[in-house]
Design goal:
By secondary structure, this protein is of the alpha+beta class. The chain has a domain at 16-60. Helix content is 32%, strand content 18%. The protein has 2 helices and 2 strands. A two-stranded antiparallel sheet has the order 1-2. A hairpin with a 2-residue loop joins strand 1 (31-36) and strand 2 (39-44). The longest helix has 13 residues, at 17-29. 0% of the residues are buried.
Amino acid sequence: MSGSSPEEFLILTENDQELNRFFDRVRVAGKIVVKAGEHEFVVEHRPATITGEARRLLARGGPED
C-alpha cells in the first residue's frame, strides 16, 4: 500500500470458506484480476512488510475480540 495510512488486517476464520478458497487460488496464481462490473481489482500474493506493532500483535495470536 502507498501513502501513510496503516494497513488493515482481516483475519479469516473457518467460517470464511469461500474467501479461504479464493485466497488459495491467489496463492497458487500469484496474482488475479477480479472484474466486478466496471471495476477491476488486482489481488496479489506477496510478502508483507509489517510494522513492529503489527508483528507483536500477530505473535500474540491476533486481536482479542
